[in-house]
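User: I need a structural model of LiaF transmembrane domain-containing protein from Pedobacter ginsengiterrae for a docking pre-check later this week. Nothing fancy, just the predicted structure tokens so I can convert them on my end. Input:
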Amino acid sequence: MENLIKKNHTDKQMGLGILIVVIGAVFLLRNTGVDVPHWILSWHTIMLGAGLWIGYRKNFQGSGWLALTVIGAIFTLKDITVFDFEMSKITTALVLIGLGLWVILKPKKFKNLDQNFQNNQADIHNMKS
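Assistant: Understood. Predicted structure tokens for LiaF transmembrane domain-containing protein:
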């Protein structure tokens, strides 16, 4: 168990290190005159990254990280232009597709009614004894 905790901490530390290196590389490219798109270091891209980072740290459990990620993604997609084509024209469709995939692929958390009923009967028999 201890090895698993250490490995998980090491993986998260490596992820943070990679993130810092990428941000530093973007700053270096921008300061040396390379044309880096303005949306890469905007508030909404940082919000998107923060949401993904929080989700990664919490193993994508809960929904707080999802709100940050969705809001950041919507504003980032509105700001991206690729080959003079604005992503804002297809943002709603992409968000709906992403939401649908999340609903389909999320882990199933349900109890079988028969097992629940059997467990309740066993508890009642134990109380009577």
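Before docking, keep this in mind: The longest helix spans residues 2-31.
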